Protein 1
Amino acid sequence: MNNQALIRKLNEEHSLELAEWEQLLSSYTKEDLDHAMKMAQEIAVAQFGKKIYFRGIIEFSNFCKNDCYYCGIRKSNKECSRYRLELEDILTCCVEGYKNGFRTFVLQGGEDGWFTDERMCEIVKQIKSKYPDCAVTLSLGERSFESYKALKEAGADRYLLRHETADEEHYRALHPEYQTLENRMRCLKDLKSLGYQSGCGIMVGTPGQTPKIIAKDMKFMEEFQPEMIGVGPFLPHKDTPFRGEKKGSVELTLFILALCRIMLPQVLLPSTTALGTAEADGRKQGVLAGCNVVMPNLSPLAVRKKYMLYDEKAGTDISAAEGIALLKNQMEEIGYEVVVGRGDFGKER
Ligand code: SAM
């Protein structure tokens, strides 16, 4: 089957064989990319209209016990100046976000032991009691089943945990020995079983990644049926072991985003900051490839430059309000409207 026939098959059956994924990812042309983006955009518009959900991301801690080779806040990076926001700071970010129409707050951080279940549950409870019409999304990395359960009971609605790669060997090449794919996958299963709207995903273009590996990721996502998918290009950070590596391809990222939309028409798919960093209009292109979510940064300006996952991260030198205005403009430029709403999976169409 040729590539465009495979894309049509994906649209009809929402599934491809592993070998078909590999063919598509290894031999796609510019025409195939255009074809997939057009189809993905039509699907997104049919699902959501020309509407984009905004999520306010609050990067509340850059302390991390992990040592992912690609990440600027890895524990071995001694150049990273560490900070953590406490409850009051986080609530201040929410005030700004709510005023600007955000109805989802995403709490993201490194794996910081200071944020015990007790502290984290208190933060979630406070946000939910002050903003009962808002969703809380957590992105705190790997925790125990009991911890995820307690956080869910405290009111958390969604959880983002990119699986990073579904290939064992590639996982090993990106992480130290004590971080395992098995545990990452266990976490994703736990999250889903607890009723979180769950998000997995990958970076595109990590060192050693091949079409065969991405094919496995697509197959995994097809089986896992996430409610959200996070996909952005890998971008090097100067103080990590991957400092000299090439950045991931924007084209391939757009192709994968489009294929995700075609595979899972209802999935909540952000046009990521990494995409907006790799190219100035990256986030617009993401929407044109089927994305329906954008996540402006609500973190206080004073800490933005400390949450540097990769070099030259977009939006670290403008205030939350300026960042929101910029993104709203970008969306309007391509004929999309930003909506106020929680934007839950399978609802509000
Ligand atoms: N600690 C949590 C976790 O592990 O899911 C959340 C924070 S972690 C920094 C969020 C995501 O940033 C990761 O899942 C990874 O895909 C992405 N990331 C880290 N370093 C990156 C880089 N150099 N380029 C692009 N994305 C990166």
Note: Residues 17-329 form a domain with the TIM Barrel fold (CATH 3.20.20.70).
Protein 2
Amino acid sequence: MIYLDYSATTPMSMDALDTLLKVSKDFIGNPNSLHRLGGKSKELIESATKQISELLKVKTNEIVYTSGATESNNMALLGVAFAYRNRGNHILVSSLEHPSIYAICDYLESIGFEVEKLKCNQEGLIDFEDLKHKMRPETILVSVALVNSEMGIREPLKMIRQIIKKENATTLFHSDMTQGLGKVPISVHDVDLASFSFHKIYGPKGIGLLYKQEKVTLVPIIHGSGKGSVLRPGTPAVPLIASASKSLRLALQDLERKEDFIEKLNEKIVKELSSYEGILINQTKYSIPHILNISLPNIKPETFIHALEDYEIYVGTNTACASGEVSEGVLAVYEDEKRASSTIRISLSYLTTTDEVNRFLHCFGLVFKRLGSLASKEKN
Ligand code: PMP
């Protein structure tokens, strides 16, 4: 099997899996319980949270555990919208967001908020002039993903923050950092709120995190009991939290070495795929090498993906959460509907081997020839 869909999700590392199993077996108490077993679980959460806070360079009370980045995004956007409604109802988002951000914005619009999309330039970066122009006194939130999930475009959050705060010091800045964590260096201090998900960094599925700067107020979107978190009441997921902290520590190691290696694999694939007639490489100089997006000429991406499956090769469409739809990001950058509706995403890991890439390229060639000639027969 050749797995090249690492941006959709990653396999768990043995260390993260070991922690998950051990903690599930040995820490049975509910951290909200008053007895010793509860206390033991509570202590474990506290030490995992301390480790995470040190790795992200934040305070422990700035961390909220969630079920994943979808929930973190909801908690951030809805939480800010409800908390700061008296200040204004205007929200700005980039054109390269994950579908979950747009779904939340649709909901916010349905209850009276005004959401505007920011333009991007030909390289996929936020158009700074457009941002300045769209900022208003009643803008309560701007949300920009650190790394776009479709083309891997990395936005300069520090610069974007400066513009936002200069135009309106009270506007909050959120970033969905899900696709950046474990791939590129991150600084949550560029933003006021940040979303993460651990299944993207070889950790368990079903756990994410929201960083919320201490001074930011959020209206809870989940209500319940429990002495733990106000924003996320209920029984904390002790094994998931412990395993998440292990996966974060590992994910942040050797970032540069891993990226250099992945860059070489990316270059090799781009070089070969560029030689095929009609294939378009959806990559700008701000794309990180872990995510490689291409458009296929006259071949349905689903058909292509299933044909590769026959060789036990697994790649993705634009994002796993929007399979089969037009890629919003590719459309925003290239303004070409056909190009944006025929994308596939090849996502690489430091676990990917040169041999896997060679075999992928070989099978890609076979599938491309077969489906390409079928497509041209259909056309004639
Ligand atoms: N944001 C981004 C940028 C993502 O890539 C994903 C996963 N496709 C999500 C949010 C959703 O994450 P989760 O599956 O943890 O809810």
Note: Residues 2-9+254-379 form a domain with the Aspartate Aminotransferase, domain 1 fold (CATH 3.90.1150.10).
